[in-house]
Amino acid sequence: MGGTFDPVHYGHLLAAESVKEKLNLDCIFFIPAGNPPHKSYEGMASPIHRYNMVDCAVRPNPSFRISDIEVKREGYSYTIDTVNQLSTILPKGCKAYFVLGADNAGDILRWKDALELIKRIDFLVVTRPGGWENGLKEELNILSNAGCNIDVVEIPMIPITSTEIRDRVKSRRSIRYMVPECVEQYIYENRLYT
User: Fold this and answer.
1) DSSP character for 187?
2) Which ranges constitute the DSSP H helices of the chain?
């Protein structure tokens, strides 16, 4: 499961747990983006801060792991590079999926080396119950026609976004119950998003 995780929140964790459970997966690797090529904004937490927040958030779940391969990589964090690197690390015969939110599915064919990427890994798109079919169905058809193996996994509705959390911190409003307690503490101790 890749992303900027700026910051990681309960929506991310619930999505990962839902995917793991519904597909009976052994584990979920969280891979915080180091330097994402398509996402840059003022006040973005550094890669190490985002890594540390994910690390403390996933630690209580024995099925969750974290990888620093993108955080350690110099330059932009491209998914194709991560997938290529993972293929050398994961045990032979291990089946891997790339988990992403429905809001990013339409962008896959615009990613670096997209046609090679969709041959190398299958995708799982997490979406909220109901209402996703309209726009996403067309995007999934385009991806399938391009040769992408992609499935949808519906997850419970948790209307939390990282943007909202950053805005709440900036305006000194509570983020309790939106992020794990260790993430909340880390944000305040390191004066992130203020």
Assistant:
1) H
2) 10-23, 47-58, 69-72, 79-89, 102-105, 114-120, 133-145, 162-170, 181-189
Classify burial at 190, counting beta carbons within 10 Å of its beta carbon; exposed 0-12, middle 13-18, buried 19 or more.
Answer: middle
Long-range contacts of range 159-164, CB-CB < 8 Å, 24 or more positions apart?
A: 159/11, 160/9, 160/10, 160/11, 161/9, 161/11, 162/4, 162/5, 162/6, 162/7, 162/8, 162/9
- Is the model's pTM score more than 0.90? yes
Residue 130 pLDDT exceeds 70: no
Q: What is the token pair recorded at 162?
A: 């990282």
Is residue 132 predicted with pLDDT exceeding 80?
no
What mean pLDDT comes out for the span 115-134?
Answer: 83
- Phi and psi (nearest 5°) for 59? -55, -40
Q: What angle do CA 179, 185, 188 make, to 5 degrees?
A: 105
Amino acid at 2: G
Cα 117–Cα 97–Cα 162 angle in degrees, nearest 5: 95
Q: pLDDT higher for 169 or 37?
A: 169
The pair of structure tokens assigned to 108 is 């896959």
User: Is the model's pLDDT at 159 over the cut of 90?
Assistant: no
Element (H, E) at 100: strand 97-101
How far is Cα 135 from Cα 75, in angstroms, rounded to an integer? 33
Contact (CB, 8 A) for 161 and 11: yes
170, pLDDT greater than 90: yes
